[in-house]
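Long-time lurker, first post.

We've been arguing in lab meeting about whether S-adenosylmethionine would sit comfortably in this protein at all. Half the group thinks yes, half thinks no, and nobody has a model to point at. So I'm putting the question to the forum: if I give you the sequence and the SMILES, can you give me back a predicted structure of the complex? Inputs are below. Any interpretation is welcome too.
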Amino acid sequence: METGRLPAEGVRTMFDRIAPVYDAMNRVMTVGLDRRWRAATAAAVVRPGDRVLDSCCGTGDLALACARAGGRVTGLDFSEQMLERARRKSSEIEWVQGDALALPFEDGSFEAATVGFGVRNLADLELGLRELRRVLGEGGRLGVLEITRPRGLLAPFYRVWFDAIVPLLGKVLPGGAAYSYLPASVRRFPGPEDLAQVMRDAGFEDVRYRLFAGGIVALHTGVAA
Ligand SMILES: C[S@@+](CC[C@H](N)C(=O)[O-])C[C@H]1O[C@@H](n2cnc3c(N)ncnc32)[C@H](O)[C@@H]1O
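Top reply:
Settle the argument with this. Predicted structure of the protein with S-adenosylmethionine, as tokens:
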């Protein structure tokens, strides 16, 4: 499978194919910890009553976490198959099919925004972050939850997990073959320091990050400047 950055159409087709196994793969790959990371992301940026955009919402679990934190949530994704599963989980949340690189919302439409395991897949990371900045009003809060590559002791275990076991799991699950794309997409993604800088360049200030699971996952937060 492709090892470089996939064009947007390739990414959309890939997620349409992954959709039936996506939630199960998430639980297995993260041994269920993803729920906790999503709750932490929502808690970091959502205040009760906020209008919240969850961009690249996929099957909707982070959008649901934002709704539980008190947000009035819109979930956006360009994969109809992923959205189809999200719609089954909540009728309170507004589910929108659209492109994260050309958000169909006016400037300043939201007080908070989140992206869970989504920015890594964007064909243009900088443009995706600038779009999020645009639809947030000044002072709006952004939370980006994403896989990252750990340094130090965990690094060799991580390599075995991501470069061998995850693609293997993908082969045995129906429709999961597209998971062989995952290690490549993580490998070319900026580390936590570099992602923080890309967020600053896109118009966010007070950018910070915290690491989960020994540095395998990072939560970046920033405030629209
Ligand atoms: C790995 S999934 C993450 C789903 C969900 N946020 C979660 O936390 O499980 C990445 C999602 O990003 C979506 N995506 C990637 N590029 C996109 C774009 N340009 N516009 C809209 N959605 C996009 C894919 O369709 C996919 O559903």
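For your lab meeting: The mean pLDDT is 90. The two ends are 39 Å apart (CA to CA). Whichever side wins, do check it experimentally.
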